[in-house]
Amino acid sequence: MGPKKVLSAEEGDDIKKSLEFMTEEISAVKLQMKAILDLVEEVKALRIQNAEKDRRLAYLENRVADLEQYTRINDVIITGLRIKPRSYARAVAADNVGGPGEEDVNSTELQVVTFLRSKGVEVDYNNIEACHPLPRKNDSDKPAIIVRFANRKHKTALNADIARKARYLKKQGKIQNTWTTNCKVFIKLNGTPEQAKVLVIRNMEELDKY
After folding, report:
1. Ramachandran category for residue 199: left, alpha or beta (phi over 0 → left; psi -120 to 50 → alpha)
2. 79-122 pLDDT, tens per residue?
3. How far is 19 from 41, CA to CA, in rounded Å?
4. pLDDT value at residue 96
């Protein structure tokens, strides 16, 4: 082996400074890594919180939907029927006796029953608890009437007629599929994936276009 090289004082100082610099750099990198790991853990915690909030929100939305379904379970919305107003003469006669006559009060219900029967849906007039037109934003909007049955059996019967017609359309190949869930009738349209939408059918008239 050859003679060992003896470092000068200046060279020794340079090496010392280099080691000190590297030590500081390593410490800085360690601090940065710790900060990054802390941020990663924070992101994980936030994701867990968001997932929990999403689950809670989905649960609440489902609860609201269930409550709305329950409160409206006896209601049916009919579109396409324009209620004919009572005549001026009958209005005058009713005003003279202090109010509308029984025929006028029941006019909307009678027109609804007649309309449904014309569509092949048999409804007993006495099973209608309430019936009135829904407000429209514009005169050009399609008229809609809400009907509340005395019990849900009659709404179920109406939904059965809607489901029967939907199955007939499926058999004819005019729609891709149909099913009933929670007293709601669904259909899936024909066409490409973009066109094959799933729709909720609320009345017979909505099936007339298919």
Report:
1. beta
2. 777 777 655 334 434 443 443 344 444 578 888 888 888 877 77
3. 33
4. 39
